[in-house]
Amino acid sequence: MDSIVVTGNGPLNGDIPIAGAKNACLTLMPATLLSEEPLTLTNAPRLSDIKTMTALLQSLGAEVTSMQDGQVLAMSSHNIDNHTADYDIVRKMRASILVLGPMLARDGHAIVSLPGGCAIGARPVDLHLKALEAMGAKLELKDGYVHAKAQGGLKGGVVEFPFVTVGATENALMAATLAKGTTVLKNAAREPEIVDLAQCLRKMGAQIEGEGTSEITIQGVDRLHGATHPVVTDRIELGTYMLAPAICGGEVTCLGGKINLLGAFCEKLDAAGISVEETAKGLKVSQKNGRVRAVDVTTEPFPGFPTDLQAQMMALLCTAEGTSVLEEKIFENRFMHAPELIRMGAQIDVQGGTATVTGVDRLKGAPVMATDLRASVSLILAGLAAEGETVVNRVYHLDRGYERVEEKLGACGAQIERIKGQ
Ligand code: EPZ
């Protein structure tokens, strides 16, 4: 397994290109199943999760051709001859559940393995299933698989989510485009990835109103057609690289970045003493003056502070002046980076879903290990500012969500290299 070796060596300066969003691409790809005509995505990120979704769609009979070094995905689902999403693929990536709504909506039946738990929490899919039931689907759980049927097709209905869920909103939104009649999604997720999905579906002929608000109304149509759509900028990759000059000093412009993708994240950076300026090229980030200040952070659905930036923010706050309290409200087990940061000299006390971080002057390099994607990159950020060498092991998690991390940071002056494993 590869590892990444980082040596803290002062300020970073330069430009970092931000890719298309992993989590948008992972929901736009299953949208191909809704139509017999081709769907082409541009600005796709080159990540292992995208390869996993490609393999899943191909296993169902879809054609997926990766072009322009993976940045264009040309897909066609005119020949879906298998309606079973197998456990072997689904267990690798929970976003696989997003094929359920589209397959069921188009062909009236689908069998999808249940994803099971994962490192950051139990992450059930009950709300995906309840939403489809509200549209008339009959579901049965057998041998770890959801067997879904909708004889005569799905029907519009009212789906009220008890709390905000990105994935269930996406599954329901895709399914509703082909359901008979009107579907209303209440307490829907408002993340930029949902807005991107709705815009793509509209290009395919769907009738959708209200994306980006907590109530989305979909008028079902008989069929969807082909389209070409650029994947929205990855706000989590953007926020991650914005934290690099925040931690190390210097000035970095994250190309293509926009403040409106970031919600409360920018407010917290401002409070911590980080300057963020939107320019024609992207977001220019630097420290305002002197040491970063402690801030309290609570993760919430968009536009609140994203759970996917909590680990990286913690890396920043480890060397801030004062004590910060981080509350994780989305996933029950998302502080696995804390013990690793402690190995680097951080002072962190975790009690349930709350982490109290008391800033130290400087972290010290150490060998560390991460069990999820965002935790891995938080350790790289911490290593950039630490004294000495940090070796981040098990970087396959990182490769699921960050393309060419060592090149992007290296181009700004970071001392970082990948050591190829066996
Ligand atoms: C998406 O996961 C992202 N993944 C996650 O990205 C992200 O952390 C999360 O949204 C929150 O923003 C993709 O888009 C592929 P949820 P998702 O449904 O859709 C509970 C990353 O690092 N829940 O919004 O699975 C759930 O357990 C990641 O890129 C149910 O109880 O998240 C969680 O506590 C990891 N029942 C909360 O809701 C359900 O049926 C929010 O989850 C569905 C969710």
Kindly describe this structure.
This protein has helices at residues 22-28, 48-59, 87-90, 100-107, 126-134, 166-176, 192-203, 235-248, 264-272, 310-317, 337-343, 373-385, 396-399, 405-410; strands at residues 3-7, 12-17, 39-42, 63-67, 72-76, 84-85, 109-113, 138-142, 145-149, 158-160, 182-186, 207-209, 215-219, 227-230, 250-255, 274-278, 282-287, 297-298, 323-327, 347-351, 354-358, 367-369, 389-393, 415-419. Helices cover 29% and strands 26% of the residues. It is elongated, with a radius of gyration of 21 Å. The termini are close together. It is of the alpha/beta class and 422 residues long. Strand 16 and strand 17 (282-287) form a beta hairpin. The strands form 6 sheets. A 4-stranded mixed beta sheet has the order 22-23-1-24. A 4-stranded mixed beta sheet has the order 2-15-17-16. The longest helix is centred in the middle third of the chain and has 14 residues, at 235-248. The structure holds ligand EPZ. Residues 23, 26, 94-95, 121, 123-128, 165-168, 307-308, 330-331, 373-374, 401 line the site of ligand EPZ.
